[in-house]
C-alpha cells in the first residue's frame, strides 16, 4: 500500500526519482508532465494497517479529525497503527522490493522495554529492542512547558505541592499531557549489499514480550536495500580508531599533508571529548569528511551509563568548501535543552537549567560552499542549525526523532538549497528558513537589539522534501526574508501545528520583502489544537484555539532598525497547493496590532474537506497577546487574492467555505481573482 498522503493525490503527483537539476515549475511549458512532490527515497514503506494482522492484534484508528497527541492513532502515520497484545499476535506484509534492512516505527508504554522478532518466510532473522528511552515526553498546560517538555524521570522531580512562588515558574502539576510516544528501531541484515529479502517474501513482526500490560504498537515498517560500504577514496587520511581524538588527529594530518579529506571506515565513533569545554569538532576549510555510508559509519556519544543522556557533540566549520557525506549521527537527547533543577528549587532559586542552542549536529556559521550529503541524523535536538553561509547544499539526507528542527536556515543564509531530504517525528519545524537578527545588549533607541551584519535570508530553495509526523511546529516554515522558495514537497500528519507556517512573530527578525514562493505542495492531515491559549485556557482541550493546515501570521509590528515602525508582511505566493483533510481549517490568517497582510496571492490552492475539516479558510483574532499597552481582540487586517482555487469535499458547504470572526469581518478580505469554485470576495 502506498503511503496515504500520496494515495489521495492523482498519479501525476506520485514520487519519482529526480536528478539534481532543478525542475521547471509547473505550467512553465504547456503539456509538461507535472513535477513530482516529495523526496525520492531508497526505502519502501509498509503501513501496519495495510498488513495482515493475526492472533489478537488490534487496529488503532481515528477515522476523522481531530487527531490528538498522546494517543496511538493520533500520533501514527495515516492516524492508524496495529497493537500486538500477546506473543501469538503478529503483523505481516508481502515485500514488494529487494531489501537487506528493516526499520520499524513503534510505541511501547512509558518506562517499558520489549522486543520485536523479525521473520522472513517464517524464519527468524533478527530481534529489535523496542523501549521508551527516547519517547514519552510530558508537558504542563502552557506553551513554555510544551517547548520544555520533559521525560517522566524529570517530571517526577517537579514539586508535588507547588508553593506560591512556584507559580511564577509555571510548575503547577499535573504535567500529564503526554506526546512524542513513538520511536524507531532498525537492523541491517547483511553488509555485502546483497538482498536477504526478495519480492514476494513475507516479512512478519512478532513480540514475544507483548501482553495486556506491555502492548507493542507498530506504526509502519521500512524495507531498504543498503549497498555495501564505501571504500576509502584515494589519498584520503584513514581514521585509525573509533574515537573523537582519532578523528581530530586525522583532520590535522589531512591539513599538514595536503590531503583532500578523511575517511571513516565502518564503525561507531565514540565522541568522548578530550576537552569538555570544546565539545564540537572543528573541520578545517577545504576538507571532506567521508564515511562508508550512513548505515555503516556512525558518530555516537559515550554510553549513557557513563555520561548520562543529553550529551553534547557535533561538528562546526572553520572555513569554506567543506563537505560532509555518507555517515550518521545518533545522539541521546531526551528533552529540549531545559531541565528542572530540583536542588536549585529547594534553595528557593530559579529552578530551570537552560542551555538553548546545544544538541545540534551541525551549527554556527557555515561559510561558503559547504555540502552535506547522505547524512542520517537522529535523536539530536537539531540536525542542522545554519547561522549564515552562502551556496550551501543539503541533499539526500534523513532527519528523524529530533527534539527540535531538522534543518533551520537562519541568520542570513543565502543562495542555499535543501534537496530531496526527509524529516519525521521532529519537535520543531522540520525544514525552516528564519531571517533572525541576533540579540545584542547594545540598544538602538529603545530596543534591546541591534541590526547584525548577517542580513535577511534570501535566494534559498527547499525542494523535493518530505516532512511528516511533526509533534511540535510545522513541516515547512518561513520567517521573513525575500526571494525564498519552498516547492515540490509534501507534509503530512502534523500533531499540534500547521503543515506550513509563514510568520514574522519572532522579534527581532527581518521583514518579508520581495517574494516568498510556496509552490507545488501537498499538505495532508495537518493542523490541530494549540497547546495553550493566552486568554487563560489551561486544561480544557475543547476550549483551545485551533491551527489551520496552512498558517499566515503577520505578527511582528516592530522594525529592528527603526523601532516602533511596522515591518512588512507581503509578497507571499502560494501556487498549486493541495490541502487535504485539514484537522480544522485549510488556511488560517492572523495579524497583530499594527500589522497587515499585503500583496499576497493564492493561485491554484485546492482545499479538500473530506474526512476532517471545519472551514476552508478563516481569518480571526490572533492567539498571541498584542503588544502592550494594547489589549483586547485584534482583528486580522489586509487581504489575500485568490485565483483558480477551490474548496470541496463531503464536509464543504456554502456556510463553511470561509470564516471571519467579529473583529476581522470589516478589516480583512479574501478577494476573488477569478477562476475559483465560488464567486465574489469573502
Structural notes for this entry:
Helix content is 5%, strand content 38%. Strands 25, 27, 30, 33, 38, 40, 42, 43, 46, 49 and 52 form an 11-stranded mixed sheet that branches. β7 (113-120) and β8 form a beta hairpin. The radius of gyration is 25 Å and the shape is globular.
Q: How would you characterize the largest beta sheet?
A: 11 strands, mixed
- Would you tell me the structural class of the helices and strands? mainly beta
What is Rg? 25 Å
Instruction: Quote the distance from N terminus to C terminus.
Output: 40 Å
User: Helical amount among residues, as a percent range?
Assistant: under 10%
Quantity of strands, as a count:
53
Mean pLDDT score, rounded?
A: 88
Q: What overall geometry do the principal axes of the alpha carbons give?
A: globular
Share of β-strand residues: 35-45%
InterPro entries: Agl_cat_D2 (IPR055149), CBM6-CBM35-CBM36-like_1 (IPR033801), PbH1 (IPR006626), Pectin_lyas_fold (IPR012334), Pectin_lyase_fold/virulence (IPR011050)
Domain Alpha-1,3-glucanase catalytic: 250-647
GO molecular function, one term: hydrolase activity
Domain CBM6/CBM35/CBM36-like: 41-226
Amino acid at each position: 500500500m502506498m503511503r496515504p498522503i500520496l494515495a489521495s493525490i492523482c498519479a501525476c503527483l506520485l514520487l519519482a526519482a529526480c536528478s539534481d537539476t532543478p525542475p521547471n515549475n509547473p505550467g512553465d511549458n504547456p503539456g509538461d508532465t507535472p513535477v513530482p512532490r516529495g523526496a525520492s527515497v531508497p526505502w519502501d514503506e509498509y503501513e501496519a494497517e495495510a498488513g495482515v494482522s493475526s492472533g489478537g492484534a488490534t487496529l488503532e484508528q481515528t477515522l476523522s479529525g481531530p487527531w490528538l497527541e498522546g494517543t496511538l492513532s493520533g500520533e501514527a502515520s495515516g492516524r492508524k497503527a496495529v497493537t500486538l497484545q500477546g506473543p501469538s499476535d503478529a503483523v505481516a506484509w508481502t515485500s514488494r522490493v529487494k531489501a537487506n534492512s528493516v526499520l520499524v516505527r513503534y510505541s511501547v508504554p512509558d518506562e517499558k522495554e520489549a522486543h520485536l522478532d523479525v521473520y522472513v518466510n517464517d524464519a527468524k532473522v533478527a530481534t529489535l529492542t523496542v523501549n521508551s528511552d527516547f519517547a514519552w515526553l510530558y508537558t504542563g498546560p502552557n506553551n513554555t512547558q510544551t517547548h520544555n517538555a520533559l521525560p517522566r524521570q524529570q517530571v517526577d522531580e517537579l514539586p508535588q505541592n507547588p508553593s506560591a512562588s512556584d507559580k511564577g515558574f509555571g510548575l503547577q502539576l499535573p504535567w500529564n499531557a503526554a506526546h512524542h510516544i513513538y520511536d524507531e528501531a532498525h537492523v541491517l541484515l547483511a553488509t555485502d549489499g546483497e538482498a536477504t529479502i526478495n519480492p514476494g517474501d513475507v516479512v512478519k513482526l512478532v513480540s514475544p514480550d507483548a501482553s495486556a500490560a506491555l502492548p507493542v504498537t507498530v506504526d509502519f515498517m521500512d524495507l531498504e536495500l543498503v549497498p555495501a560500504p564505501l571504500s576509502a577514496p584515494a589519498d584520503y587520511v584513514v581514521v585509525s580508531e573509533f574515537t573523537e581524538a582519532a578523528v581530530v588527529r586525522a583532520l590535522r594530518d589531512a591539513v599538514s599533508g595536503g590531503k583532500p579529506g578523511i575517511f571513516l571506515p565502518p564503525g561507531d565513533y565514540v565522541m568522548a571529548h578530550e576537552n569538555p569545554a570544546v565539545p564540537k569538532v572543528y573541520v578545517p576549510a577545504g576538507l571532506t569528511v567521508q564515511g562508508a555510508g550512513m548505515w555503516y559509519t556512525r558518530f555516537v556519544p559515550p554510553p549513557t551509563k557513563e555520561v548520562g543522556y543529553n550529551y553534547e557533540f557535533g561538528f562546526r566549520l572553520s572555513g569554506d568548501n567543506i563537505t560532509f557525506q555518507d555517515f550518521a549521527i545518533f545522539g541521546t537527547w531526551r528533552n529540549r535543552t531545559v531541565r528542572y533543577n530540583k536542588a536549585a528549587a529547594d534553595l528557593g532559586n530559579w529552578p530551570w537549567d537552560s542551555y538553548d542552542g546545544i544538541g545540534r549536529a551541525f551549527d554556527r556559521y557555515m561559510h561558503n560552499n559547504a555540502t552535506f550529503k547522505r547524512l542520517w541524523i537522529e535523536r539530536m535536538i537539531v540536525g542542522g542549525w545554519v547561522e549564515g553561509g552562502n551556496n550551501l547544499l543539503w541533499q539526500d539526507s534523513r532527519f528523524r526523532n529530533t527534539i527540535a528542527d531538522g534543518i533551520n536556515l537562519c541568520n542570513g543564509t543565502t543562495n542555499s538549497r535543501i534537496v530531496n531530504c526527509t524529516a519525521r517525528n521532529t519537535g520543531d519545524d522540520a525544514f525552516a528558513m528564519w531571517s533572525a537578527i541576533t540579540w545584542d545588549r547594545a540598544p538602538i533607541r529603545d530596543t534591546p537589539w541591534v541590526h547584525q551584519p548577517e542580513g535577511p535570508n534570501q535566494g534559498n530553495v527547499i525542494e523535493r522534501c518530505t516532512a511528516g509526523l511533526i509533534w511540535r511546529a510545522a513541516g515547512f516554515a518561513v520567517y521573513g526574508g525575500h526571494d525564498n522558495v519552498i516547492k515540490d514537497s509534501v507534509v503530512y500528519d502534523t500533531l499540534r501545528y500547521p503543515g506550513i507556517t509563514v510568520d514574522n512573530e519572532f522579534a527581532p527578525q527581518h521583514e518579508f520583502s520581495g517574494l516568498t514562493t510556496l509552490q507545488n505542495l501537498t499538505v495532508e492531515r495537518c493542523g490541530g489544537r494549540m497547546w495553550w491559549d493566552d486568554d487563560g485556557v489551561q486544561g480544557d482541550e475543547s476550549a483551545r484555539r485551533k491551527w489551520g493546515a496552512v498558517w499566515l501570521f503577520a505578527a511582528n509590528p516592530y522594525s529592528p532598525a527603526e523601532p516602533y515602525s511596522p515591518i512588512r508582511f507581503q509578497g507571499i505566493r502560494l501556487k498549486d497547493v493541495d490541502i487535504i483533510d485539514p484537522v480544522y481549517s485549510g488556511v488560517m490568517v492572523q495579524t497583530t496590532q499594527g500589522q497587515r497582510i499585503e500583496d499576497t496571492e493564492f493561485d491554484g490552492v485546492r482545499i479538500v474537506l473530506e474526512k476532517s475539516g471545519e472551514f476552508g479558510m478563516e481569518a480571526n483574532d490572533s492567539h498571541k497577546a498584542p503588544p502592550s499597552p494594547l489589549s483586547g481582540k485584534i482583528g486580522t487586517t489586509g487581504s489575500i487574492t485568490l485565483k483558480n482555487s477551490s474548496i470541496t469535499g463531503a464536509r464543504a458547504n456554502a456556510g463553511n467555505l470561509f470564516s471571519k470572526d467579529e473583529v476581522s469581518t470589516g478589516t480583512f478580505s479574501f478577494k476573488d481573482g477569478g477562476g475559483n469554485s465560488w464567486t465574489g470576495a469573502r
